[in-house]
Amino acid sequence: MGSQIDKLLEKYWNGETSLEEEKVLKAHFKSNPALTNEGHYFRYLSKEKSVKYEGVKNSSKKRAWISAAATITIGIITAALVFNDANKDPFAIEDPEKAFEATKNALMMISGELQEGQNHTLELTKFNKAKEELQEDS
């Protein structure tokens, strides 16, 4: 068995092993009490595989909320500038129809930014799901 493990290790370090061969190696070093460098390495991999990283999910949720809050804040500031008193702001729109159109355009821009933020969040969700599937397969 030792020579077979040595051959598998050589293939492993060359990146030529199949998943089944890697499972054989992992099982061997899990059950073999010898503390070789390879044994330490495979035990480390096994230990790291069981660690749950919750920080990534939380930070992506926080990032999504911060993006949404920033976009809404920009929208409120834009709306405040549009509806600002004409005496204080030389760029104020006095015609109600033009003001309505400007507000509508500003809100459409904000809506687009929110949609873009939501798309980025969806991509992060896909990435996290793929990462979890890869961890489950290992």
Textual characterization of the structure:
The structure is a single chain. With 138 residues, the protein is an all-alpha fold. The mean pLDDT is 76. It folds into two domains: 2-49, no CATH class; 55-137. The chain has helices at residues 2-13, 19-31, 37-49, 55-82, 96-137. The chain is rod-shaped. The two termini are 24 Å apart.
Please outline what is shown here.
By secondary structure, the chain is an all-alpha fold. The protein has helices spanning 2-13, 19-31, 37-49, 55-82, 96-137. The chain has two domains: 2-49, no CATH class; 55-137.
SS summary, helix count: 5
The helical percent reads: over 70%
Q: Shape, please?
A: rod-shaped
- The count of domains is 2
| N-to-C order of helices and strands | HHHHH
Radius of gyration: 29 Å
Number of strands: 0
Low-confidence stretches: none
Overall pLDDT, averaged? 76
- The share of residues in extended strands comes to under 5%
Can you tag this structure with a few keywords?
5 helices, 138 residues, mainly alpha, 2 domains, single chain, 0% strand, rod-shaped
Q: How are the SSEs ordered, and which strands pair?
A:
Elements: H1 2-13, H2 19-31, H3 37-49, H4 55-82, H5 96-137
Helix pairs in contact: 1-2, 2-3, 4-5
